[in-house]
């Protein structure tokens, strides 16, 4: 089974010049989803994990499945104003402007071993900001997982300390 068979490219979405990688066909196939989870877990053999952190919103999909498979807690990183308790925020630059993400202050304890998960690594700004939030709380990032990596955007360069694991490369 090839995961690329379950990822379709939508040209000019959400705006002209963007080739959106749609994982909806993958989500519709239980065997493909199981393969994704098993491939991520395969890379973690022998590494103790305390929590999986997922980045809003598509990082929640496989992030939750990974947390369940590893029998650990799941921590959401969200856009500002979406988390109900006290948060830490981290801003980061985008191609045109900036954005901010947040995490609950008490979701990660000092020394906890963390997997960070998102569906796509593009320019790396969001993932780098998420790593900063995890480290601010005292978490140790064991691995940063992506279903898809857009190699030509070189987002990996913004994660120099991270063990990056991407399943599909474009």
Automatic annotation (TrEMBL):
Give start and end of each Phosphoribosyltransferase domain.
48-148
Q: Which Gene Ontology MF annotations are present? A: adenine phosphoribosyltransferase activity
Q: Which Gene3D superfamilies match?
A: 3.40.50.2020
Whichever gene encodes this chain, its name is apt
Concerning its family, UniProt says: Belongs to the purine/pyrimidine phosphoribosyltransferase family.
Instruction: Check the record and name the CDD domains matching this protein.
Output: PRTases_typeI (cd06223)
Described by its record, this protein's role is as follows:
Catalyzes a salvage reaction resulting in the formation of AMP, that is energically less costly than de novo synthesis.
Pfam family, any one: Pribosyltran
Q: How does it assemble?
A: Homodimer.
Q: Does the keyword Transferase apply?
A: yes
Write the record's keywords in alphabetical order, separated by commas.
Answer: Cytoplasm, Glycosyltransferase, Purine salvage, Transferase
From which source organism is this entry? Psychroflexus salinarum
What pathway does the annotation place this protein in? Purine metabolism; AMP biosynthesis via salvage pathway; AMP from adenine: step 1/1
Q: What is its EC number?
A: 2.4.2.7
Q: Which InterPro entries match?
A: Ade_phspho_trans, PRTase-like, PRTase_dom, UPRTase/APRTase
Q: What is its main location?
A: cytoplasm
What is the protein name for this chain? Adenine phosphoribosyltransferase
Does this entry carry the keyword Hydrolase?
A: no
Give the domain of life. Answer: Bacteria
Leader peptide range in chain numbering: none
């Amino acid at each position: 089974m090839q995961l690329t068979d379950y990822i379709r490219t939508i040209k000019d979405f959400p705006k002209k010049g963007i080739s959106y990688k749609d994982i909806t066909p993958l989500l519709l196939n239980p065997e493909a989803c199981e393969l994704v989870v098993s491939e991520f877990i395969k890379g973690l053999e022998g590494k103790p994990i305390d929590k999986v952190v997922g980045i809003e919103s598509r990082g929640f999909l496989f992030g939750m499945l990974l947390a369940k498979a590893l029998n650990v807690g799941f921590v959401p990183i969200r856009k500002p104003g979406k988390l109900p308790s006290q948060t830490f925020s981290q801003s980061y630059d985008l191609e045109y402007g900036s954005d901010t993400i947040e995490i609950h202050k008490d979701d990660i304890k000092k020394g906890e071993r963390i997997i960070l998960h998102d569906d796509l690594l593009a320019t790396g700004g969001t993932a780098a900001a998420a790593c900063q939030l995890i480290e601010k709380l005292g978490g140790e990032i064991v691995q940063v997982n992506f279903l898809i990596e857009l190699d030509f955007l070189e987002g990996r360069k913004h994660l120099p300390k991270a063990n990056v694991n991407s399943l599909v490369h474009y």
